[in-house]
Amino acid sequence: MSSADRDGTGRRLLASLSLCAILIGCKRGGSSQEPAPLLDTTSRDLGAIRLDADYESTFRISNTTDAPITITRIRSSCGCVAAGFDPAPIPPGQQREITLKLNTHGQTVLGPIVKHATIEFESGPPVQLELRARLDSDFEIEPRRVEFSADERSHEIRLTRRQLDSTSFAKLVLVGNADCYDVAEDSGKQTADLRVFRVTMKEASAGATLPELYFSDSASGRPLPFATVTCSRKGPTLRPSSFTVNARAGAPPKAAVRFRFVDFQSQPMRMVSVQPFDELSKRLLVIGFDPERDAKSFTLALAENSDLPDETLTRLMVSVDFTSLDQRTSGRLLLPCFLLGTGKSEKAEATTPPAAESAN
C-alpha cells in the first residue's frame, strides 16, 4: 500500500471514528442535552395541522469531521413521510439540508401524531429524526351520536368552525336520508363560527339503527373526513329489520319471512296493525298476524303473479302500528322491503311455501 493510500484510509477511519463519537455522544446526552453537533436538531414540532394537506420541515446537518460524510439512505416510519436529501458526500466544514415531507391525506385519527425518519451513513451509527404535530379537524360537531325515540324525535346538531376558512364553512351542508329525517338550520343561532341544525326523525324505521347524518360541501356530495353523526333509535323494533325478495323470472321459489316484534322498553307493547304502506306495497302479503292471539309476530311473502315495475329494484314498505297494553303510548314502525325485478313485460312466478323462515 502506498503512502497516499495509507493517508486516505487513515482519514476515512478518523472521520468514521469522529462520526461515531459525535452520534454516541448525542445518544448518551439524552433529551435534556443540547442537539448533537452533527445536526441542528433531531426533532421538529409542526403544531396544529389540517387533514388532506402537505407539510415539510428542514433539518441541517454539519460535517464537523476531517473527512467527507455520506448519507446512504433515509428510512421513514410510514408512507405519509418522505425524505429529500442530496446523496453527494458532505465535505468537511460544509452543511447540507434534509427535508422531511408529511402528508395528512387519508388520516383516520385526530390528535397528536409522531413520525420518525432514520438517517443511515456510509459509516457510523444511524440517527433518528422526529416530526411532531397535532392533527385537528377543520370543524367540530356536537354531538357525534344521537338517539331518537317516540318521545324524543328531534335533536340539535352544532357545527363549530376551527381551521376551515369562513367562506367554506358557510357552504357546508348537513345531509340526512330524506325518508328518515327532516333537516333544518336555525339561522337565529348562527354566528361566523357557529351553525346550528335541527334534525327531526320521521316515521320510525323497523330497525334500531338509522342512517348516518354527515356534513358535506354540497347536498349531493360525499361525507367529509370526520364529519358523520351516528344515529340510533330506542324503543320497539322488528327482527329482522328488512326484507328482500328476488322476483326475477326463473328465480327459485320465494321463502316467506317471519318477523318478530321486540320490545326493549319496560312498558310492554303489542302490535295492533300490520299492512302495506301504499298501493305499490300491496305486492306483499301479510300472513299469520292475529292481534288477539299473537301480537308479537307476522310473516311476509310476495303475492303470486305480481306485475313488476320498470325499475330493477323497487322499495316497498309495510306499516306496523303498536301500542302499550294500557293504550297510553302508541307508535308506528316502517319495515322496508326490497323487490328485485327484471323490468316491464316480465312477471314473477312467485309462490308462497307452506313453511316460513324464522327471523334471526
TrEMBL record:
Gene3D superfamilies: Immunoglobulins. It holds the Pfam family DUF1573. InterPro entries: DUF1573, Ig-like_fold. It comes from Caulifigura coniformis. This is DUF1573 domain-containing protein. PANTHER family: LIPOPROTEIN-RELATED (PTHR37833), SIGNAL PEPTIDE PROTEIN (PTHR37833:SF1). It comes from the Bacteria.
